[in-house]
Amino acid sequence: NYPGLLDPALLSRLSEFRFFVNGPETNEDYTRLLRIELREALSIGYASLTNQDLEVLGKISRNHNLSGRDVHLVCSKVMAMAKSFEIPEAVYRAGYEERQAGVARLAGRIDFDMVCTLVREQREVSEGYGRRVPVKA
């Protein structure tokens, strides 16, 4: 995406060859990409998604013909939403265990429905920018 940052000699060599890097193609590819992109949110507990949720989201992403970049953008939005919650002052004053429980309640609010909505919105954005996105049967 940034050819100006490449060494001119390398850039001239790359222009001699054409190569194509496939993005996700199967449901499993999309599911794997979602797991990779959301691993931090899942491991910390910011997102409450099961393996089955991720598989369904992978299938939905494939059916909407999202690119790998689209999936990355969806996951970036999930991470931004997960990290942007306000901790009430009362939680700061509480004891250690109460603080942990309070933060856990606030943090685990990203769920399956929210991510589905983001996937659908990303498809609409992709279509809006002129990229034709056929729905796979």
Quick tags:
mainly alpha; 8 helices; 137 residues
SSE map:
Blueprint: H1 8-14, H2 27-37, H3 39-44, H4 51-63, H5 68-83, H6 89-93, H7 96-107, H8 112-128
Explained architecture:
This protein has 137 residues and is an all-alpha fold. The chain has one domain. Helix content is 64%, strand content 0%. It has eight helices and no strands. It has helices at 8-14, 27-37, 39-44, 51-63, 68-83, 89-93, 96-107, 112-128. The mean pLDDT is 84.
Structural class: mainly alpha
H/E element order: HHHHHHHH
Whole-number tally of structural domains: 1
Mean model confidence by pLDDT: 84
Helix content: 55-70%
End-to-end distance, in Å? 31 Å
Write a short abstract of this structure.
64% of the residues lie in helices and 0% in strands.
